[in-house]
Amino acid sequence: MKSDDIGFPSRSIWVARVPTKVAFFAWETTWGKVLTLDRLQRRGLQLPNRCFLCGCEEESVNHILIHCTVVRALWDIVFGLVDVKWVFPETVKEALASWRGSFVGKKRKKIWDVIPLCIFWTVWKERNRLAFRGGVKRSKVKEFFCL
Ligand SMILES: [Zn+2]
């Protein structure tokens, strides 16, 4: 399924008890508005594109929030808790659109709904921490081991 074919996943973004800035960040990622390195390059900035978290792949919003091996570990923990196998979607938009928690029960559903938004927010904050504290340098060392 192509990302364009699915509707905008508003129900998975504007979730009760989630701080506005966290929901808004998810909204931005869904529209591809987050300034990841691939977008900065497309704007003409001359900089190397290496994910600040794994140091192996190029950074894009879909990589850093879903596919990055470092972030995958987080997703695996979440799905390990509920013993569910998740087919990892291509895009953030698809991830949110397919985020259904009917199997966790009504009581846990409220928490379940918050999980992707919290992961996105936490990962992005960590990414920025690394990016502005010499994450690139560290990534270059890691790059060596990735080849
Ligand atoms: Zn990565």
UniProtKB/TrEMBL annotation:
What sequence ranges are listed for the domain Reverse transcriptase zinc-binding? Answer: 10-75
What Pfam families does the database record attribute to this sequence?
zf-RVT (PF13966)
Q: InterPro entries, from UniProt?
A: RVT-Znf
**Protein name as annotated:** Reverse transcriptase zinc-binding domain-containing protein
Upper taxonomic lineage: Eukaryota, Viridiplantae, Streptophyta, Embryophyta, Tracheophyta
